[in-house]
From TrEMBL:
Pfam families: Cation_ATPase, PhoLip_ATPase_C, PhoLip_ATPase_N. It is found in: Membrane. One of its GO terms (molecular function) is ATP hydrolysis activity. Residues 1-51 form the P-type ATPase N-terminal domain. Residues 849-1049 form the P-type ATPase C-terminal domain. One of its GO terms (biological process) is phospholipid translocation. This is Phospholipid-transporting ATPase. It comes from the Eukaryota. Mg(2+) binds at D431, T433, D823, D827.
Length: 1057
């Protein structure tokens, strides 16, 4: 169970770190230059001019990597040395976490962390329930329930019985019955036979587990509800026992720490690092088959592929580096040819035997000038970029204006490589629920049997919006009602108290069909732990209307119906997912009646209604659903189906087979669910309110003014999405008559309804069914052309996969930078598909945050992230690149001009130490501080005038044109720096006739002028002066004079000869 998140050890750190660093081509390039400088025939520079910079750069990077790895080592050691209670020889023995093995049975106590991925065997609670907190896994703080199988739960805390839960007996049954896999306590192994597995391989799916348990000649299906994952914390449970099924790096928590390549083979474990950190695991699998032959089996698998995101400026930089390298080759070729001509026609200066003629001389000069002119691509450029981005990320992390005080959530830059691209966003793809809205649900209205409840009317019969003065309905009939619950339509209370069966069944369904867990405080106060805010709101509403959900066990659910406790036997739970868009529960009441209760999206419920459905009720419900959606309410339809014993038994047999399938279990279960979820009777619908987050309309309006196009991708109904679009200023009143509705006709699925007046801005609304056709290969580009003409686009009723496909469509076909923002697991694929992903820590956990590049607590912070930090980061990095190329061409080309006065012999015009320190000391810090601190405008003006964001979208501040402009400036600066001093000193002499100057004097004058000129240039480029900028800009000039005085002072040489 030992984990290792660190990459290095004390003995392999240097080797592996250097191996990783030399995967960068630029580092290899500079090492080659260092090697060339050790060849005296071609090098006119001391090798230290390149050795020191490469050592400094490699050293700084190694120190950074080593520091972070040291922290990982400390964390690993702390976790691995935790203690846990293991069942051994019918006693509990304390073992360190690192010594826990697959097959061990572990005892956990209240508030302890789960040691490894465990199969829950038993617990202290009634019905073998345990409560866990999964905040470390997915950020959700609400308690979740897990339950042991009733068969294993009977062992309770009997250590003898637990110890006898072993694999020897399982193995004999496995062979006799032809099964394929079991988990063995004694052999600590997974046995795999005939290439069929009975337990999923290690993976990173936190909310899914597929397996079977074979015990006592029976087969039991295991799913996520029976599993305790490493990273969870046991709560409100005295103790529990669990069997280790995945340990160490195979646990789902560790599988989520990176993209792993995993192999299961015989014998050993090996870790290696290709392009990304990867782990290879080996497990030797032994068992005696029929007590005759020892067999070994192998299986291997590979998990997901990592996606490396690069900014557009970084991609441009890669091209420019190759262009500069080509320019370097051109200069070296010119000088080599020039040297050959000089040696042949001007004067031939005899070389040693290795250069017998002018052609060999020219060849050697080519390599000499490659060395002397290599500073056009300085190594300090790349390490500077890394540290600049880290500094910019810190400003995002420490920005108090992006701190969400309500949840104590600061902004978080989870990557340091994408900062400048925040200033170039053109398309924002946003989820709605929990991203634009609060995801805090309040039961608002409902329709039962075609009658709508929840409307409030005044004395004149006119509908009004309730306020604090509106009297609440009378809930005195219900002692469990909450004082904070607000509902104003007394008609619904009257229907309940008068015994309306349809209304009773409606709330009975709400109280039964859910995954909520009840939680009683020591004072007896009932609260609910809900994984979904929708479910919490609905179950809470049922409670206030007299149908109180009180208790859940493995196979029962207890509801207090108007004061009378009724316990239902739960026969099957048909889980909700984003594809099914519905959930069903099959229960048997005390009278033996079997009923299926179903709730879900209106589109899927209506498709499964029986022919006997009352059309009047159906039509009335449809009208009310449209009205609810028009008000921006979230809706669910409720339906019921009566089952007889015979048909249920036939279905249950098919369900049991599907639930035990180890291949395509989900698909098989979905097919079985479809068989029974048909011919249902419509009960009604619910409408809950999800209010907009603070500042959403203002944020969207400001981003739109910055020419950022907002696309909302949501699973809600079209009417709900459109209403939210108007509420948050995406759609405006001017668009009301020219909103484009993209729909598919039944005839061919290809028709488009397009309405616009040709003058105003317009928006596009499209549903998921239409999007299937719109994203087809033949229509995708046409759909994109239409959508890009719109100011706002809303895609409703879309699946997570469709969200990702829409993002990919824009990303691949538009020369624009995209950003996706969401808060839930259904937004992860969209977040990963975009250039930049932003996660919101909302009510649905932190799945989105864990997959995102940036994270914060509220949608409104996106405005500051883009218009302030994004714009600043883009502006700073552009200034940095332009200045860096300018100063290095100004420095390097002095060598080139000087070559025409020394016979093109690659003699350096500067002192070796000046060449070494120019990029490393003299000119590095001023531009670094500019790239970290500079502000052309303060944050208030950046937000007040969003048009200032436009230059980033069009790459105005750094592009090929600006690159060449910087190069030309550097060339002219180098011409002035060389020829003005040269002309001043070339014919000068003392009164005694001796020369007034020499090479050293000329070099000092040129180098001093160069330092002053390029430092003043960065001062002119600085818009926002801080004490730090003053210190490093003027300090750099001072450092230069101090070093020069030390290097050339007669006094110092006399003191230290």
């Amino acid at each position: 169970n030992k984990i290792k998140t660190s990459k290095y050890t004390w003995y392999n750190f240097l080797l592996i770190n250097l191996w990783e660093q030399f995967h960068r081509v630029v580092n290899v390039y500079f090492v080659i230059l260092v090697v060339l400088q050790f060849i005296p025939e071609i090098s006119s520079l001391n090798p230290t001019t390149s050795i020191i910079p490469i050592i400094v750069v490699l050293g700084l990077t190694a120190m950074k990597d080593g520091f972070y790895d040291y922290k990982r080592h400390k964390s690993d050691s702390s976790v691995n040395n935790r203690s846990s209670s293991v069942v051994k020889d019918e006693t509990l023995t304390e073992e360190k976490w690192m010594n826990i093995k697959v097959g061990d049975i572990i005892q956990l106590k209240n508030n302890e962390n789960v040691t490894a991925d465990l199969l829950l065997l038993s617990s202290s609670e009634e019905h073998n329930l345990v409560y866990i907190e999964t905040a470390e896994l997915d950020g959700e703080t609400n308690l979740k329930v897990r339950q042991a199988l009733p068969e294993t739960g009977e062992m309770k805390d009997n250590l003898r019985t637990l110890r006898q839960f072993n694999g020897v007996y399982l193995l004999s049954n496995l062979i006799q019955n032809g099964w394929c896999l079991f988990i063995s306590v004694l052999t600590d192994c997974l046995v795999i036979l005939d290439k069929i597995t009975c337990c999923e391989a290690p993976n990173n799916y936190l909310h899914k587990f597929t397996g079977n348990l074979y015990w006592n000649n029976e087969t039991f299906a295991i799913d996520n509800e029976n599993i305790l994952l490493r990273g969870c914390t046991l709560r409100n449970t005295e103790w529990c026992f669990g069997l280790v099924i995945f340990a160490g790096p195979d646990t789902k928590l560790m599988q989520n720490t990176g993209e792993n390549i995993v192999f299961w083979l015989a014998g050993y474990k090996l870790t290696f690092f290709p392009k990304f950190t990867s782990h290879i695991y080996f497990l030797k699998l032994h068992f005696h088959m029929f007590d005759m032959t020892m067999c070994v089996f192998y299986v291997c698998f590979v998990t997901g592929k990592s996606v490396l995101k690069r900014t557009s400026i970084e991609r441009l930089m890669n091209k420019l580096v190759w262009l500069i390298f080509a320019f370097l080759l051109l200069l070296a070729t010119v000088t080599a040819v020039g040297n050959t001509i000089w040696e042949r026609y001007v004067v031939y200066m005899p070389w040693a035997s290795y250069a017998p003629n002018e052609y060999m001389s020219g060849f050697l000069m080519f390599w000499s000038y490659i060395i002397i002119l290599n500073t056009v691509v300085p190594i300090s450029l790349f390490v500077s970029i890394e540290f600049i981005r880290v500094g910019q990320s810190w400003f995002i992390n420490f920005d108090r204006a992006m701190y969400y005080e309500k949840k104590d959530l600061p902004a978080l830059a989870r990557t340091t490589t994408l900062n400048e691209e925040l200033g170039q966003i053109e398309y924002v793809f946003s989820d709605k629920t929990g991203t634009l809205t609060q995801n805090i649900m309040e039961f608002n209205k409902c329709v039962i049997g075609g009658t709508c409840y929840g409307e409030v009317y005044n004395e004149d019969g006119i509908a009004i919006v309730p306020d604090d003065s509106t009297p609440n309905a009378d809930f005195s009939f219900n002692k469990d009602a909450e004082n904070s619950f607000r509902f104003f339509d007394q008609r619904l209370i009257n229907a309940i108290t008068s015994g309306d069966t349809k209304v009773h069944e409606f709330f009975k369904l709400i109280a039964i069909c859910h995954t909520v867990m009840p939680d009683f405080s020591p004072e007896g106060i009932l609260t609910y732990q809900a994984q979904s805010p929708d479910e919490g709101a609905l179950v809470g509403a049922a409670r206030n209307f007299g149908f109180v959900f009180k208790e859940r066990t493995f196979n029962t659910i207890t509801v207090s119906e108007l004061g009378t406790d009724v316990t239902y036997e739960v026969l099957a739970i048909l889980d909700f997912d984003n594809v099914r868009k519905r959930m069903s529960v099959i229960v048997k009441d005390p009278e033996g009646n079997i009923t299926l209760f179903c709730k879900g999206a209106d589109s899927v419920i209506y498709e499964r209604l029986g022919e006997a459905t009352d059309e009047d009720i159906k039509n009335a419900t449809t009208v009310h659903l449209d009205n609810f959606a028009g008000e921006g309410l979230r809706t669910l339809c409720l339906a019921v189906k009566r089952l007889n014993e015979e048909s249920y038994k036939v279905w249950k047999e098919a369900h049991s087979k599907a639930s035990m399938a180890l291949e395509d279990r989900e698909d098989r279960l979905s097919a079985v669910y479809e068989e029974i979820e048909r011919d249902m009777e419509l009960l009604g619908a619910t409408a809950v309110e999800d209010k907009l987050q603070d500042g959403v309309p203002e944020t969207i309006a400001n981003l739109s003014n910055a020419n950022i196009k907002i696309w909302v991708l949501t699973g809600d109904k079209q009417e709900t999405a459109v209403n939210i679009g108007y509420s948050c200023n995406m759609l405006t009143e001017e668009m009301k008559n020219n909103v484009v509705v993209h729909t598919s006709k039944v005839a061919n699925g290809r028709s488009i309804v397009f309405q616009q007046d040709g003058e105003n801005k317009f928006g596009l609304v499209i549903n998921g069914h239409s999007l299937v056709h719109a994203l087809s290969e033949e229509l995708a580009i046409k759909f994109l052309e239409l959508a890009t003409l719109c100011t706002a686009v809303i895609c409703c009723r879309v699946t997570p996969l469709q969200k990702a496909k829409v993002v990919e469509l824009v990303k691949q076909n538009q020369k624009a930078v995209t950003l996706a923002i969401g808060d839930g697991a259904n937004d992860v694929s969209m977040i990963k598909a975009a250039h930049i992903g932003v996660g919101i820590s909302g009510e649905e956990g932190t799945q989105a945050v864990l997959s995102a590049d940036f994270a914060f607590g509220q949608f409104r912070f996106l405005e500051r992230l883009l218009l302030v930090h994004g714009r600043w980061s883009y502006m700073r990095i552009c200034k940095f690149f332009g200045y860096f190329f300018y100063k290095n061409f100004a420095f390097t080309l002095v060598h080139f001009w000087y070559s025409f006065f020394n016979g093109l012999t690659a003699q350096s015009s500067f002192d070796d130490w000046f060449v070494t320190l120019y990029n490393l000391v003299y000119t590095s810090m001023p531009v670094f501080m500019l790239a970290v601190f500079d502000q052309d405008l303060n944050d208030e003006y950046c937000i007040k005038f969003p048009k200032l964001y436009l230059p980033g979208q069009t790459n105005e501040l750094f592009n090929i044109k600006i690159f060449f402009r910087s190069i030309i400036r550097g060339i002219f600066t180098s011409l002035a720096l060389f020829f003005i001093p040269y002309g001043a000193f070339v014919d000068g002499m003392h009164s005694d006739g001796t020369n007034i100057t020499d090479l050293q004097t000329l070099s000092i004058v040129i180098s001093t002028s160069l330092i002053i000129v390029v430092t003043l240039q960065v001062a002119l480029d600085t818009s926002y002066w801080t004490p730090i900028n003053h210190f490093f800009i003027w300090g750099s000039i001072g450092i230069y004079f101090l070093v020069t005085f030390a290097m050339y002072s007669n006094g110092l040489y006399q003191i230290l000869p």
